[in-house]
Amino acid sequence: MNEIDLLHELAPEAERLLERHLAASKEWFPHELVPWDEVIKHDPRDDYDPEFRPIPDAVKRALFVNLLTEDNLPYYTTDITRLFGLDHAWGAWNRRWTAEEGRHSIVIRDFLTVTGALDPKVMERGRMQHAEHGFHQPIGGSADGFVYVALQELATRISHWNTGKLMEDKAGNDVMKRVAADENMHYLFYKDIAIAALSVDPSTMVLAMERQVKHFEMPGAGIDDFSNHAKAIAEAGIYNLSIHHDQILAPVILRHWRLEALEGLSPEAEQARERLVHRMSRIDKVAKSQEARRQKRLAEGGAAA
């Protein structure tokens, strides 16, 4: 089935899922989550003092990456428009999704600026660099888009949530939980539209799954020094390969999308399914090994302390 036919076939389901989303959504205001009284304690225009509000390095890096990822919203909106178009429910969803996503960078940046948690100049320079870099995920069509965005939204939700859990102040935790709740709602839309697409064209969706798992990267991968940020974030247990497999790939692809139980696949899709099952098995093996080493380092660090 070609892209236009697939989107046309799924349009009624997209409309249903949009209506479900709107019915379940709760209005919230970024300014109500920001602890403005913190401004009394320091002026964000003063030189940044890293000792003013001590935060573990990994949490600082996660907040920085999470913020800059949200800052890149114009590129994501452009890509979703390219993939799904602006007709009917698809356009309405894209506009609603964009409006909701826009709150995320607002509330995270305001929180970090007001509390002095990160250097405002570093945040702005990072935003400029990442926005100039853009977004370069290989997403060739709507089927690939359904798969990638479902996985990415869930990954982002988990990253925000785990970052919030490691923050010691209630205001910071509330900010990250609120953003994570939005991301979960967005994930549910894409996860369920993918289920509908599987019933319409399972072969095309399996091919898309295999491609997107193989080439998956978080949208913040273009951030300057991302590899070092990612290592620290992984070591802290905020987002790592074990989480990627156990909390994203396995539940979504195997349980929700029922990869191994799909029927009526083309020969090419059958081969893609075999490759994907094998790849996920290898990811699981590597993830378990990495997690065992991480837990050992944590135990040794605790013993040394």
CATH architecture descriptor name: Orthogonal Bundle
Oligomer designation: single chain
Order of helices and strands: HHHHHHHHHHHH
Instruction: Supply Rg.
Output: 20 Å
CATH topology-level name: Ribonucleotide Reductase, subunit A
Mean pLDDT: 93
Which structural class matches the secondary elements?
mainly alpha
Helix count, DSSP H or I runs of 4 or more residues: 12
Separation of the first and last Cα atoms: 60 Å
Low-confidence stretches: none
Main beta sheet strand tally, sense and closure: none
CATH class categorisation: Mainly Alpha
The CATH homologous superfamily corresponds to: Ribonucleotide Reductase, subunit A
Molecular structure report:
The chain is mainly α and 305 residues long. The chain has one domain: Ribonucleotide Reductase, subunit A. Helices cover 75% and strands 0% of the residues. The protein has 12 helices and no strands. It has helices spanning 3-24, 30-33, 57-71, 73-84, 88-115, 120-133, 142-165, 170-200, 202-215, 226-235, 241-256, 267-304. Helix 7 packs across helix 11, helix 8 packs antiparallel against helix 9 (202-215) and helix 9 packs parallel to helix 12 (267-304). It is globular. The mean pLDDT is 93.
Annotation keywords:
mainly alpha, Ribonucleotide Reductase, subunit A, 0% strand, globular
Layout of strands and helices, then pairs:
Layout: H1 3-24, H2 30-33, H3 57-71, H4 73-84, H5 88-115, H6 120-133, H7 142-165, H8 170-200, H9 202-215, H10 226-235, H11 241-256, H12 267-304
Helix pairs in contact: 1-5, 1-8, 3-5, 3-6, 3-7, 3-10, 4-5, 5-8, 7-8, 7-9, 7-11, 8-9, 9-12, 11-12
